[in-house]
Write a structure and sequence with these properties.
A five-stranded mixed beta sheet has the order 3-4-2-1-13. A four-stranded antiparallel beta sheet has the order 5-10-12-11, sandwiched between helices. By secondary structure, the chain is an alpha/beta fold. The radius of gyration is 19 Å and the shape is globular. The longest helix has 20 residues. It is built from ten helices and 13 strands. Helix content is 34%, strand content 17%. Helix 1 crosses helix 2.
Length: 329
Amino acid sequence: MNAEPLDANTVKALVAEATTAPSLHNAQPWAFRFLRDTGVLRLYADLERALPHTDPENRGLHMGCGAALLNLRVAAAARGWAPDVRMLPDPADERLLAEVRLFGTGPPDGALARLAPAIQRRHSSRFPFRDEEVPVATRERLSEAALLEGAELFFPDPWHVRSILELVQDAEATEALAPEVHEETLRWTRPEPSAAAGTADGVPGGAFGPLQRGTSVPVRDFALGRPVPGRGWAVFEKNPNIVLLGTAGDRPRDWLCAGQALERVLLQATADGLVASLTSQPTEWPDIRWAVRDPASAMANVQMVIRLGYGPQGVASPRRAVPDVLDVL
């Protein structure tokens, strides 16, 4: 176990790794506070970055913060620490999502530590993938990654995949009739590249990926009819590898667990040479979300639809600077 003192510079490095996590519309809805006197690092929900129309229950917000928490644990394990994590430690403060004590009582988690190189390489890829199945051994590693975080990964069969693709289209049609959701998406997405937009959050045009030609792969089109410089058309895979991530419960603690499971799966996928994109649209509408799950499976609550495959790595989306998300007291 690492016996080095936990100083502010080390905490800044850990938070920098944590904040590479994915979040809904790359809103980055997290804030950190390091208490020097106790050595506790706190994770808060930044409710000013919530999406009240797209994510009215803050389920996606909790998942994004959970993904950041997993990255923090991975980065800590890679430095020889065994973090002690308490989720939702104060029922009176809904913003306080977790407390992390980095000096745990046991050895660091070697399996987590081995995922550290994937943190900076993982980016959502909205580009075409090859029509190639994911090997069984790789699927088993991804399923194990989800189970270790208290979630389940389900690989639907072809008929279910077709049903999911239809539900994604239903969700897109429902979203098109919701002006508040439309405006929220416009707020957090920008047709220009990151450098041209000059912003540290949201989804830049370079990360939108090409327009689809003749297929219906579940990739959210953030352009919303706006012209995107340099964006072309492409043929996507005909048989996408679709995976469902779910949990038994559907409360804030479950959402935090789902976020950690999601990021652990994505890091494992990256380590195994896969790329991925996320599709939350069918889970954002209650009357569609219930139909996404396979009624023959034991999965109670689908939290995310994941597209996996082999193809080009995604474009990095911008990130806020550590001083903007971390207070040291």
